[in-house]
């Protein structure tokens, strides 16, 4: 008899179901709209992260070809053919060649140097701006996503309090469930914002390293052009010196003696 009464009481008691879908259904179109905005933010953040990461890796890998092949060419035009046509480094070289051609038409040497320097700086800024594209979106998502989620939480709590007031009961079981559901939107906002902030800082740091490489390459181009090809990067000079020293160490003793005697004569 006792078990039958307990079973009947359990069936008669209202079953309260709480969860994400229940919260969204109670929130209505406003909750679904806020969730859609957060999903768009999250998808856009990961899309920018992966596309920019691939773009940065491409630029960095192409820099190895610049260091190994470009500076071994006899001229800038020959070196440009060894670079990818759509690469940032090819753009700098092409702009340097164009600036050099325009430089020869100027009569004022100081003005011509400023023109060449400004042309390469403008080209470098264009590349940096392209690499930085999309990062403001990540910064915006990192700054606003928690507040978008908080807006959903505020609306959810408001609806929960209205329903509690209509029911006329403020017991803990009536308050904890609806308020807990409303906090789900804040959690989603944080889950969207945190990866965006990490992605922004990481990509920004990599862009700074690329900007340093572009700046060094631009300086080397200017030195090469202004010296008519006699001044090359310090790394290339050091490599040539090391190769010459290694060749001298590995050469036979007789060959070294013969070379020294010839110089003395």
UniProtKB/TrEMBL annotation:
Alphabetically sorted, this entry's keywords are: Cell inner membrane, Cell membrane, Membrane, Protein transport, Transmembrane, Transmembrane helix, Transport
- Looking at the keywords, is Transport present? yes
Q: What is its main location?
A: membrane
Instruction: Note the subunit structure.
Output: The accessory proteins ExbB and ExbD seem to form a complex with TonB.
Q: Which family does it belong to?
A: Belongs to the exbB/tolQ family.
What is this protein's function per UniProt? Involved in the TonB-dependent energy-dependent transport of various receptor-bound substrates. Protects ExbD from proteolytic degradation and functionally stabilizes TonB.
Q: Name one Pfam family in it.
A: MotA_ExbB
Membrane topology term: Multi-pass membrane protein
Top-rank taxon of the source lineage equals Bacteria
Where the record annotates domain MotA/TolQ/ExbB proton channel, the positions are 96-212
Q: What is this protein called?
A: Biopolymer transport protein ExbB
**Where does it reside?**
Cell inner membrane; Membrane
Residue ranges of the TM segments: 29-50, 137-162, 182-203
């Amino acid at each position: 008899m006792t078990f039958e009464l307990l079973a009947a009481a359990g069936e008669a008691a209202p079953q309260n179901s709480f969860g994400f879908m229940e919260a969204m259904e109670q929130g209505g179109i406003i909750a679904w709209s806020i969730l859609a905005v957060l999903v768009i933010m999250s998808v856009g953040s990961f899309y920018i992260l992966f596309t920019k990461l691939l773009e940065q890796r491409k630029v960095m890998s192409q820099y190895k070809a610049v260091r190994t092949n470009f500076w071994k060419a006899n001229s800038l035009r020959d070196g440009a053919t060894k670079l990818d046509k759509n690469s940032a480094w090819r753009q700098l070289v092409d702009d340097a060649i164009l600036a050099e051609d325009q430089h020869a038409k100027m009569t004022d040497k100081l003005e011509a140097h400023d023109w060449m320097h400004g042309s390469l700086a403008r080209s470098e800024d264009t590349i940096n701006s392209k690499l930085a594209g999309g990062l403001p979106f990540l910064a915006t998502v990192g700054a606003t996503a928690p507040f978008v989620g908080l807006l959903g939480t505020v609306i959810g709590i408001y609806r929960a309090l209205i329903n509690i007031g209509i029911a006329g009961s403020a017991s803990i079981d009536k308050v904890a469930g609806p308020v807990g559901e409303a906090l789900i939107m804040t959690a989603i906002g944080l889950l969207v914002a945190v990866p965006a902030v990490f992605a922004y800082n990481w990509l920004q740091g990599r862009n700074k390293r690329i900007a340093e490489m572009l700046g060094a390459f631009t300086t080397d181009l200017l030195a090469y052009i202004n010296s008519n090809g006699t001044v090359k990067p310090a790394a290339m000079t050091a490599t040539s010196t090391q190769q010459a020293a290694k060749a001298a160490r590995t050469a036979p003793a007789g060959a070294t003696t013969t070379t020294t005697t010839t110089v003395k004569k």
